[in-house]
Amino acid sequence: MNAWCALGFLWLAFFCHGALSCPALCKCYSRRAEVVCNEVPLTEYPSEGLPKNTTMLTIQFTNITSITEEHLKATPLLQGLHLYSNHLQHLSSNLLRGVQHLDTLDLTGNKLTELPADVFSHALLRSLVLKNNLIEKTDADWLLDNSSLTWLDLSGNHLRKFPTALLQKMPHLENLDLSNNRLETISANSLQPLAKLERLNLQDNKLDSLDASMLQSTRNLTHLFLSRNKLSKIPQNLFQELSQVRILSLDDNQLSHIPPGSLDQLSSLDEEGLDLSANPWLCDGKVEYLWRWIQKNKKKIFLPETIICASPESLSSRSVMSLTGSELNLQS
Ligand SMILES: *[C@@H]1O[C@H](CO)[C@@H](O)[C@H](O)[C@H]1NC(C)=O
Ligand SMILES: *[C@@H]1O[C@H](CO)[C@@H](O)[C@H](O)[C@H]1NC(C)=O
Ligand SMILES: *[C@@H]1O[C@H](CO)[C@@H](O)[C@H](O)[C@H]1NC(C)=O
Ligand SMILES: *[C@@H]1O[C@H](CO)[C@@H](O)[C@H](O)[C@H]1NC(C)=O
Q: 172: Cβ below 6 Å to ligand 4?
């Protein structure tokens, strides 16, 4: 409440609840219907005083701990809600019932652990960012069927189980980021409903194997990130349907071989689009496929000289690319 309003003149009442209204500690930009509360000592969501026509609201670096359906009802035209780096621990069920036009919800950097049923139902959300929270498990009942989401970011949480049931509700998803979690396995048909998926980020998890049919339905994938897992094998047909892939990262895993033929479908790779570095390649006779593929596709590999033999001892530290035909034959 600003000083003008405190005067309490009747003729000012209009301004206090209309054009000039703005929550204490926040900045209101009325022409673009935007409100920003940045790094201020708020401990509660500032419903009071928010202009009713607010479409864009940013509350960041404050101490608010919860948000409810009632809070959001104050701004029924809201389209973008950015709640970066607060102390949010609780979101109410049916949170979005009063903000049906909400398109983007960003909850990055809070302290969310569990979320209630229908927390993201009701609005036609396209982008949901839950990055860097403390979420251990996802639930299919967060959303209704046929969710409009095209962008889901759950990176930097504590997920151990792949969110298979939740993803069944997202046939329109184009971008899925699950990097930096604790995922160990992905069941064969987890990605089956995601025919529109273009980017899949699974790096920095604990995946040690992948099912051969896992990527069968995601034919529009252009970016696939699998760096820094524990993969020791790639199924031969894993990339079979991925003719659109431009970037594929497999670096920092435990790969010793690539099955013959497994890279053949990757005809759309960008220059330097494939990263195979920091794996313990076994340079026996079975490395021949990789060796030939590198000779033919050198430009498509990111730092090809960093694809290095870990064994046998006689070739250790040599780059696969530098091996001669006779060295390969000698080892076979
Ligand atoms: C929002 O409402 C305020 C006050 O009623 C008005 O001054 C402002 O122009 C409106 N903004 C938009 C973008 O409609
Ligand atoms: C949040 O609370 C902590 C202590 O409770 C305080 O030190 C900090 O300044 C507060 N942050 C803001 C932005 O008010
Ligand atoms: C699913 O949602 C899309 C848009 O979000 C809509 O066009 C389509 O009709 C819906 N399908 C069903 C079966 O409800
Ligand atoms: C895949 O991409 C193509 C070209 O961008 C597009 O026409 C097609 O509809 C996409 N397929 C799906 C299932 O979204």
A: no
